[in-house]
Specification:
This protein is mostly helical. Strands 1-2 form a two-stranded antiparallel sheet. The longest helix is centred in the N-terminal third of the chain and has 36 residues.
Length: about 220
Amino acid sequence: MTAAPAPPVRPARTGGRLRRTLSASAVVAFVVTGILTLFGGATSAVRAAAGEADLWLPAAPADAPPVARLSPRLSSDGYSLVHVGVSGVSPESLAVHTAVLLTGYVLIAGVAFFLAYLSWRFWAARPLARGVVVGLGICSGALMTFSAAAPLLLTLAHRQIFAELAVDLAAAPFSAVDTFGLDDAVLFFAGLSLGLLALALAAVRSLVEGGDGPARP
């Protein structure tokens, strides 16, 4: 009497389910990020139309605040940023400042939506299209260019605003010159990371096309 054949063993689907779950979560996260970013840009535009804006400016050199009296283990080199709220400024004087902010908001939202699209393609197991590589390259170049140009443009914008308000910058506890700060560095390295990812995907795509035929569109 022969034994009945064992039932076929189904391959584990844990990896596929995990990939789809993570991809779906990434799509939702990037879409929400893009929507919130656009909302922030719209809020800034409305405030600019009313002649209002918030400026974060480098602090002028000053004596460090006396924090050592609070504890002998505390010290301070002074303040690095000063928040300045302006109001009653003409839209013309706020034009450059508003344009820089809106460009940044739209750029970040666009990158977030593109990454949501990339995550969806990964969810659908089609991540190596030519458009993905090109899109990542565009996002990379846009982020790095904006991070380098934004400080120069914001410096021009600040000077226009303070010129209308007749602010004596020599006596101000802040500087109108914007510098390459942490936010700019984050955007620059995000763009650099996307560029490296684009190069990696381009290399993988070339290997796929050279081996098993063209990648799926």
